[in-house]
TrEMBL record, chain A:
Positions of the Thioesterase domain: 51-124
Pfam families from the UniProt entry: 4HBT
Region described as Disordered: spans on this chain: 139-162
Protein name, entry field: Thioesterase
TrEMBL record, chain B:
Pfam families: 4HBT_3 (PF13622)
InterPro entries to which the protein is assigned, alphabetical: HotDog_dom_sf, TesB_ACOT8-like_N
Ranges for domain Acyl-CoA thioesterase-like N-terminal HotDog: 54-144
The species this protein was found in: Iodidimonas muriae
CDD domains: PaaI_thioesterase (cd03443)
Protein name: Thioesterase
Gene3D superfamilies linked: Hotdog Thioesterase (3.10.129.10)
Length: 162, 147
């Protein structure tokens, strides 16, 4: 399946239960880049004394946007799974404010994607959290096979030339 | 995760206490159990936890691991007779989660081990599983600011 455009992917995300439960939505998508929004809600609070949202909500937003950056780096929609995700909590999110997150898939190999991103209110230059992750790409076997085949073909071409 | 919750679990280890006093934990459907000296977070299955078809969203697993770690840090402080904040929790500084298996359509559990408890920082490892504790779906390393 070819990679859907941003609006189609945004409406597909509306059907993902955890994203719709938190109201997380896709704002922007470009090749290997994505930006998403987590709207403020009182149910996100974990620190009653300060009204700050749970780290888990920030973690979920970042996992979502990093995964979407991987999707947007691929030529077609393939299932991906998070291998590992590290989040550094740089400062508390401001209570009552929407949280945004953007991510960039900076390296794509045949089987693994490497991504980084930040969560912020106004600007990426003033981040609330920073994330790095790797994702395994569950490409269909035929796709993997054809890539390997292509690689083999290239190798054999070189040999032929040599 | 108030002194009353820990007192109830110390008194009767067989019960399960809702974490609904914490808005996010209540929204997610988290419960706290005691297993010997360990706290155990029980996340009841709900369709809203799903990310990709048939699998938990990784963020939900991460959040459950984080709560298991915070519960363990606060529980051990409570057992030592240290003051337990009524309306706050340890603050995560770094959280690294390894996703080992996909989490399917059933309840999720997580518990944590404090590797080092310092004056300011607690270093914690946590594990999450579903039917078989020997087959964790995710493991995490975390650092929390505790003061």
């Amino acid at each position: 399946m070819a990679l859907p455009d941003k609006d189609t992917l945004a409406s597909m995300m509306g059907l993902v239960p955890q994203l719709s439960a938190l109201g997380i939505e896709l704002c922007e998508m470009d090749k290997a880049h994505a930006k998403m929004r987590l709207p403020w809600a009182d149910r996100l609070v974990a620190y009653a004394d300060s009204g700050v949202m749970a780290g888990g909500a920030v973690f979920t937003l970042l996992d979502s946007v990093l995964g979407t950056a991987v999707f947007s780096a691929l030529p077609s929609l393939v299932p991906v799974a998070t291998l590992d995700l590290r989040v550094d909590y740089l400062k508390p999110a401001t209570p009552g404010r929407d949280l945004y997150a953007s991510a960039h898939c900076y390296k794509l190999t045949r089987q693994v994607a490497f991504v980084r991103g930040v969560a912020f209110h106004d600007s990426e230059d003033s981040p609330i959290a920073h994330a790095t992750a790797s994702f395994i790409l569950n490409r269909p076997p035929s796709h993997v096979a054809s890539s390997e085949q292509q690689a083999d073909e290239k190798d054999s071409t070189k040999k032929d030339q040599a | 995760m108030t002194p009353e919750v820990f007192a109830a679990l110390k008194e009767n280890s067989a019960q399960e206490v809702s974490l609904a006093a914490i808005p996010y934990a209540g929204f997610m459907g988290m419960f706290l159990q005691r297993n010997g000296d360990d706290m155990l977070v029980h996340l009841k299955y709900d369709i809203k936890h799903i990310g990709a078809p048939g699998r938990y969203h990784g963020g939900v697993v991460g959040a459950t691991l984080e709560f298991a770690a915070m519960a363990q840090v606060m529980w051990e402080a409570y057992l030592k007779g240290e003051p337990v904040a009524r309306d706050s929790l340890p603050k995560p500084v770094t959280v690294t989660v390894d996703f080992l298996r996909s989490a399917g359509l059933c309840d999720l559990y997580a518990s944590a081990l404090i590797v080092r408890q310092g004056r300011r920082i607690a270093s914690v490892r946590a594990s999450a599983w579903q039917e078989d504790r020997q087959k964790p779906v995710a493991e995490a390393q975390m650092h929390f600011l505790v003061s």
